Amino acid sequence: MLDSSVQPAATRSPSSVATGQIRLLVLDLDGTTVGLSNQIQPPVKQAIAAAQARGVQVAIATGRMFQSAVRFHRDMNSTLPLLAYQGGLIKHPTTEQIYRHLTVPRSLALRLLDYFEQPNLRDQLSVHFYVNDQLYVRQLTPESVAYGERTGVKPIPVGDLRQMLTPDATEPTKVLALSDEPQMIDTLLTNLRQEYTPAELYFTKSVATFFEATHPQVNKGTAVQYLAEELLQLQPENVMAIGDNFNDLEMIQYAGVGVAMANAPEAVKACANWTAPDVEVHGVAAAIEQFIL
C-alpha cells in the first residue's frame, strides 16, 4: 500500500519543490494527455520531449489495458515500464518484462458478477473482464463497442462470464462495469464500498460512467511509488504526476508536484498542488512548462 508516512501533495507547496528536483513525470492518458482526438497533440508531444531533454523520465499511468496504451508509450518515446490497469500490470513494452501483476481474486470476481447480474442491474450495466490483456464481455453492447473503438481493443463476447472464472483460469486483472448513467456508477461505488473492505478490493471510477475494481493493493499511487522508489531510487519530491479523475488521486497525493486538470472533478483538484488548463487546450504542456521547463 502507499506509504502512510508520505505527506499528501495538497499539504505541500509546489514552490518548495525546485524545478531541478523533478526527475520523473507520470502522466494519465484519457482526459489528461489525450482528449477527444484520442491522440497526443503536437504541443503536448513537444513539451514531453523538452522535459526528456532536461533529463526527466516520462511514464504512463492509466486505467487502460496494456495493449491499448502501448501506442502512447511509443509516441512519448518513453523508456520506462508502462503502468496499466491502474497499476495492476506494470510491464515494459520493449523488453516485455513484467514487474508487477496483481489480479482480482477469483472468489471476489464471482461475487461482483453476481451483484452486477441482479435483475435490477443486469440490463443496465455492461460488464468487462480483463484477462491476460484481453477484454471479455457477456455480449456486445453499444457501450462495449464504443469502448472498443476508442481503445482499439476488440471485445470478445463469451456469453456467461463465469466460464472465465473457472479454477484453472487466469484471474482477471480488472473488472469494469459501464453505464450510461453516472448516478448508477456512484451508487455502485457507495454500495460496494459498504460491502467490501479496502483490504478486499480497490474501487474507483476513471470516468463518470466507469466503475472499476482491482486487487486491493492496486492504485496509481502504489504503482508510481513502486516505479519511483523501487525501480528508479527516487523520492516523492522527485516526482510530478498529472491526472484528471478519481483514479488519479493517489498518485497526485504521492507526488512532490501533483497536478490536476481543469476538467477534473472539484474533489480531485482540491488534492492537487496546481490545476492545469483543460486537456483540449494542452494542459499537460502548460504544467510541464510551469514546473519542469
Please outline the helices and strands.
Elements (H helix, E strand, L loop, with lengths): L23 E4 L14 H12 L3 E4 L5 H10 L6 E3 L4 E3 L6 E4 L4 H11 L9 E6 L2 E4 L4 H10 L4 E2 L16 E5 L3 H14 L6 E3 L5 E5 L5 H12 L7 E5 L5 H6 L2 E5 L4 H4 L4 E3 L6 H9 L2
Parallel strand pairs: 1-2, 1-12, 7-8, 12-13, 13-14
Antiparallel strand pairs: 3-4, 4-5, 6-7, 6-9, 9-11, 10-11
Helix pairs in contact: 1-9
What form results from the Cα inertia axes? globular
The largest β sheet comes out as: 6 strands, mixed
| Overall strand count | 14
Strand percentage: 15-25%
Q: For this structure, what is the CATH class of the largest domain? A: Alpha Beta
Distance between the termini: 32 Å
**CATH homologous group name of the largest domain:** HAD superfamily/HAD-like
Explain this structure.
- It is built from nine helices and 14 strands.
- The chain has helices at residues 42-53, 66-75, 106-116, 142-151, 182-195, 220-231, 249-254, 266-269, 283-291, and strands at 24-27, 57-60, 82-84, 89-91, 98-101, 126-131, 134-137, 156-157, 174-178, 202-204, 210-214, 239-243, 257-261, 274-276.
- The chain folds into two domains: 20-102 and 219-291, HAD superfamily/HAD-like (Rossmann fold); 106-214, 2-Layer Sandwich (Hypothetical Protein, Haloacid Dehalogenase-like Hydrolase, Chain: A, domain 2).
- The protein is globular.
- The model is unreliable at 1-12 (pLDDT under 50).
- Strand 10 and strand 11 form a beta hairpin.
- Helix content is 30%, strand content 19%.
- It is an alpha/beta fold and 293 residues long.
- Helix 1 runs parallel beside helix 9.
- A six-stranded mixed beta sheet has the order 8-7-6-9-11-10, covered by helices on one side.
- GO terms for molecular function: magnesium ion binding; phosphatase activity.
- It holds the Pfam family Hydrolase_3.
